[in-house]
Structure formats: structure tokens, C-alpha cells
């Protein structure tokens, strides 16, 4: 009996693993049966030299319940279990940080997403806390009500929130009625941040050139299905590196740079295609692509966007500390000063613009240097109010055993996070420094587990 029970439990566990993998990969639940057939076929081939073992393994694989209905039930159970486990961990922690943003889905329904970061006793974790639907207005009052209602319904305390990151929208950061001001009334020591990636994207708005490129792409791809098919056929005939243009998506931060790169790469193909069309719009876009001065602007914007996208990628992902992210921004601000000098020099950091200028024997436009200067000023203005984090604190976050316990950085840490007891922090750093076990663990452990 116990052997049978054990086999059934193992089959159920295997079914859960498969369902979880399908859900994370966003695959059809019906694919579970295909996975089972593939596993059986692999067992037949791998164990063809041992018929007895082969038969045993195949029988075990056949016992795993993997129908579409079963996979559906599993996927319904798994999120409930994960959410319950997350709530249990959150109730035990003293402090949590939230990242909050809202966006419309394809049905024009506003969705409020909340990500939570907390220390679970072993490591710092970042998890999706919830996705709340906002059917009507999205004012700060309504968002605050939905947030507090969610916390109350799930046994969490709003006073646990010690920091909030938002996109800087008025409903989030409004001085009197915004979400942040309402949360600050609950916890006066609340730390608030404007999402660093949102800030960096706002610094790089390049409207006129980008709008023309977007209209060009939309004309080729969206005017008619026939026109789009003919353009793709032309790319195949010309053995082009790319098979199509990319549509711009304002929600995707990297989209602008990639759309520009693709248009620059396919410029000759676009000129050839537009030359074959008779419409007025086609002639307008053809003039745009054959004007060397205008295309110089496009190449310049493309080069600038490649630098901004590189910064964006540095800021994306999990387990980044705020110190590291601000350090990346400060490094980029220093690079902008180099770009200002380089634009009128050898253009080492503007490869597309340099190639275009050399090919057409034309100088760069003075406006380009002004743009880089204004971009640097924009970054300075938007990040002027950001907390100034010294190199010692950044070093402590990366190499906690490399800093002095009684250095000035502990006072700065107290200024940044008033709830810190500076004396206790110094003592703890001293104790850490004398622990060989912690030093050994730190060599292989990620920063979030230190």
C-alpha cells in the first residue's frame, strides 16, 4: 500500500512540475500530453538495451496525469499555493518595499501592478504581489483605497511599507491627493522614489525624427496587407539581413532604438521599394530617406538611442540595489560629457553617423551637439533630487568586508535611512568582519543573500 501511495505521489508531483513549466513558458495545457508522449519515446530509445528497466520506466511515465483538464486544475492550484506562501513570508517580515505602476490592457482596462521586495530571513526577494483591476477612474484616492483594501483582505499592514517606487504620474506623486502623500500620512518615515528607468526614458524624448520614422514604418507595414507582402518579398529577393521592419511600441522601452536601427539597416531596400510606388505618401517618405541631412539626423538619433538602451538594460532585471542603479546613471552622465566632445571630433561613439558623414563628405549639424548638451542637462535636472550615495556605501553593498566600521559612510547611511541605528550598524559590521564563515559564504553567494 505504501509503495502504491508513494508512486501516486511521485506521479502527482511530476504532473505539477510539468504544469508549472508549461504555465511559465505560456504554452497550451494540451501540450502536457505531447510532453508525456515525448518522454515515453525517449525512454524507449535510451533504455532499448534494458527491456525490463524500459518497461518499468514507461509504466511510471504513463501513470503521470497530464491531460489538458488536469494541467488546468494544477495551474489553478499552484498560484494559490505560491500566493499563500508569499503572504506567510510577508507577515513575518518587518519592512517591505513596493514598486507600483498602472497601465491599460488591450481592452482599455487599467491594471495596477504591485511588486514587493523584502527580506525573508535568508535573502532579499522580489515578487509580484498582485495585479488589481481599476474599472473606473485612476486617481490617487482610488489607488490608495484599492491598495489598503488588498492589504486588509490579506492580513497585511500598510505600516510595513517603508519605501515606494512609482512612475512619477500625478495620481502617484500628487502633493496632496497622490498615492505617495496618502501613504506618507500612514508612515511619515516613508522613502519615495521615482522609477530610475522611467526617468532615463523621459530624458531621451526625440519627437520629430522618431515620429517621421514611425509614420514610415506604419505606412509600409499597415497601409495594406498586399503592400506589406510585396515589401517582404523584396527583402527576400535582395537577400536582406532582415525579413521585415519592426513596429514601434511605446510601452517597450527598447523599442525606439531597435526600430531606428532596423530602418537604418534597410534604408536601401526602403528606397527601392518606395520608388516603385505611385502614391503621394510614398514620394514624401522617399524624399525623407534620400535627404542626406535628414538621414544624418536619423543616424545620430539611432546612435544616441543605442547608448540610452545600453543604460536601460543595465537598470533592468532583478536584484539590483538602488545604489548600483544610481551609480549607473551617474556613469552615464559622465559619458554624455564625452559624447559632447566626440560629436565634433572623431565620432568614435557615433558609428552610424560617422560612416554617413564620411560617405557623403558632410559635417555634422551643430544642433546635434546642442541635443547632447540638453540631454545631459535633462539628466542632471531629473536626477538632481535623487539621494546622493557615496562610493563607500556602494562598496559596502558590493563588498561589505572592505569598508571600515567607523567610516563616514555609516553617518550617510543614517541620513538616507533614518530608522538605522548608527552605533548598532558599526558593531554589526565589526562582527561581520571577524567572521571567517561569513567571508567564505560571501565569495559564492549573490548580493541578495548577504
TrEMBL record:
InterPro entries (UniProt xref): RNaseH-like_sf
Entry superkingdom: Eukaryota
Protein's name according to its UniProt entry: Protein FAM200A-like
Organism: Notothenia coriiceps
Lineage, opening ranks: Eukaryota, Metazoa, Chordata, Craniata, Vertebrata
Gene name per UniProt: LOC104950407
